[in-house]
Amino acid sequence: MPHMRFTSRLAACSVSVATACVAAVLIVAAALWAPSSAAAVEAGAVSLEAVAASAPSKTVPNVVGKTASDAKAVLKKGGLGYRYVPPKGSIVILSKNWTVTKQSPKAGATVKAGTKIKLTVVKTPRVTASSSPASPSPTPAAPQLSVAQQQAILAARNYLSSGMGFSRQGLIDQLSSPYGNGFAVADATTAVDSLNADWNAQAVTAARAYLSMGQGFSHQSLVEQLTSEYGNKFSPEQAEYAAGQVGL
User: What burial letters (b/e) apply to 96-109, b meaning 16+ CB within 10 Å?
Assistant: First the structure.
């Protein structure tokens, strides 16, 4: 019996010693692990901070007024993200049908690469047939010409093609003169103005006709003849143009 008690006590002591040893090992292991783990966490934090600090900065472009689709493309090209903010209850499905009205941060701000820019968008109104520009009004029809005016036009065309060279006033006088065609001045004026003649070209024609007569004209005398009340009645500008064209 005494031997059995001693054995039991010895076994109990061994168990206690073993437990104490295990506990001591765990404490030592924890002590060894704790500093390295803390160092690793601290190193990880420093590493993340370094990555954040080294991220390139970007200047926010101005995308207000662009379609949401175009704004997205501009931001992505600039290394930035985006987030649409439509009116409450709306969802952006086709971004090309939405327009950016506000952005945050504003254009010109400096942010980190990859920053999402908040884009306030509204639905772009559709252009309907009723809102399209009105078609231009038709050009009013030219007033009908009287028989006398039509005849005056025929006579005026014949004079202009005769090679004599007529000024506007000279042709009106010829058509309305009792020694010419005898048309009313109003009808003669309407006929002449309806032809939209090139009076500079008519002045050149008249100048060449004078030079071909062999009388001999200087620059000044030719200009005077072309502008004279008793000559062709061209304007001074038309006469000077004609003289220059014929080499005087």
Answer: eebbbeebeeeeee
